Amino acid sequence: MPKGGRKGGHKGRARQYTSPEEIDAQLQAEKQKAREEEEQSEELGDGAAGDPKKEKKSLDSDESDEDDDDYQQKRKGVEGLIDIENPNRIGQTTKKVTQLDLDGPKELSRREREEIEKQKAKERYMKMHLAGKTEQAKADLARLAIIRKQREEAARKKEEERKAKDDATVSGKRMQSLSLNK
């Protein structure tokens, strides 16, 4: 059994339902009121009398102004109690597509600028390196020259050994042929 001894709780209100007839009557009243406003605007020669869309826009803009006022009044939390005006705060403005400047120069962030400068510096260094103007390139070229000399000396020694071996084999064959001829 619920608290309090009755079926419904203390929270909530009694439900009030609107009958379909009442809803139809409200719609009819709104339509009638709109017709009367149109007739009044035609009589006054408003200029927007022939265009119901303009009238709707003007009605909607009135309602949106009221909504903005309601928003100002219905601030949440402490905002409603303390009125703060921050001169540094920039309101968010929306730009139309026609106002966007896509062709103009784009301002880069600090990180993007640093990244581009880093890439350019790396490219400059690689060009200097390939030209042999950097210290590292000079050290590499000196190391390559030493290795080239070592390889040339090794190739020369190998050639001398091969020649010596060939001479030994040729002289050995001569000796054999001489010994066979005797």
Automatic annotation (TrEMBL):
Residues 1-120, 152-182 are annotated as: Disordered. Residues 1-14 have a biased composition (Basic residues). Residues 86-163 form the Casein kinase substrate phosphoprotein PP28 domain. This is 28 kDa heat- and acid-stable phosphoprotein. Residues 51-60, 103-120, 152-168 have a biased composition (Basic and acidic residues). GO terms for cellular component: cytosol; plasma membrane. Residues 61-70 have a biased composition (Acidic residues).
